[in-house]
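Posting this for the archive.
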Amino acid sequence: MKDIVVGMGEALFDCLPEGKKIGGAPANFAYHVSQFGFKSCVVSAIGNDEDGDEIMRIFNQRGLNTLIERVPFPTGTVQVTLDEKGIPSYEIKKGVAWDNIPFTEELKELAHSARAVCFGSLAQRNAVSHETIVKFLEEMPNDAGTLKIFDINLRQNFYKPDLLEESMGRCNILKINDEELELVSRLFGFHSISQADKCWLLLAKYGLKMLILTCGTEGSYVFTPGKFSYQPTPRVIVADTVGAGDSFTGAFTAAILAGKPVEEAHQLAVEVSAFVCTQSGAMPVLPDELKARLLA
């Protein structure tokens, strides 16, 4: 497979009030990229258990390519509870399969063919998966068209300042929400400046191509050297917001890879994530009119 888009990290089940649903940011990202016609691949690890079997069945049914190793740890699960506005909180189990993703020859070959990868901080909480992600990034091509997207995705206390700084130094696109931006700015000592200046500072300090800032109902921004794009958040009836951010990243990445300007990619990402918020679970099928936008 050439020019493939990779979602790398946790593969798990979100245990929602209405039942168990496939989840994990990398799988959500890869699924939404694939809906726009790109070849994508989920890289993770699962256990030798029924949950692992079910994850593979679901990925196969969705037509997703996978490079998922079986390891001697249980398949990951997350207990998700929703507040009255549908905003999720997470209880993420420790010592699970996706903490132990091995770096294999197959994974090395995949890195050589990767046109884009999306990775986060959560899957780097354990040394094994952290080292695998770092090796994968190092093996990827370094040409101008390669996208290395760090969707910072802070969860509970599963991050450290040095890991965040390392990952921001290895990516060329940073995706962060307003709460995460405030936390990062406090960790690194620049919290007293404005929100926009925080974004400009990170963009310049790490030599990023783009910084995506999402602010919930207050809209979202894409900062690039010298300019930014703003999009308001559409008003929709929210079922839940699980996976909405991943769908934003997937749609934005697909649009950029298709050669769309940042402003058009941003608008599509906002509309896709708004639709996902109206659906239950992280992987709904997108309407044809949204998927066709890359052909316009």
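The radius of gyration is 18 Å. The domain at 4-295 is CATH 3.40.1190.20 (UDP-N-acetylmuramoyl-L-alanine:D-glutamate ligase).
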